[in-house]
């Protein structure tokens, strides 16, 4: 189901995004469009993929900056002719008591986690409608469905992302466009206070575990849509 597809991934250079790229390297007919903040890391990733024989374009910028998003999607369509898959993976987190948040920090979380999802989805949908097919995958969190102490801002962004996804799913289904949301629990990435691989993360999901869940969702037959998929490490009580 992934042959001859163009996939656009945000937050592509680290964590789940990078793991997804790694897993997709074995599908040698995929064209990659990769988005992240670091032009240096994107350049390294592009060189690696091209050495593997893949077509790849990279875009360094802020997922909440409308001109950047508009130009990125347009360039992808001009370069590859289509965007078959969008993975809204870019996200940031900050945790603490509510009085510790500044307005700027609150807005930064919503900009990346919610506005970025909205902008990229908005821009790819018209192209997918014209194609008569497409798949948008949101990488959310299990706190899209519950809350945690110290997570007022982060949980609010993930609830918003989930609500957006559910409504979008209803809106675009009749056009042959799938919308799927992945809800991971604890994942061993640099997203957390401790670095990736820290002993405190023992038993957590790996970024590749989540990448495999995304690929499973993308690989469903054309008449099947996996609306939601939640996964946790066995040691985490939901």
Automatic annotation (TrEMBL):
Superkingdom as given in the UniProt entry: Bacteria
Key words of the record: Oxidoreductase
Coiled-coil segments: none
Protein family according to the UniProt entry: Belongs to the short-chain dehydrogenases/reductases (SDR) family.
Family matches, as PANTHER family: DEHYDROGENASE/REDUCTASE SDR FAMILY MEMBER 11, DEHYDROGENASE_REDUCTASE SDR FAMILY MEMBER 11
The protein's name: Short-chain dehydrogenase
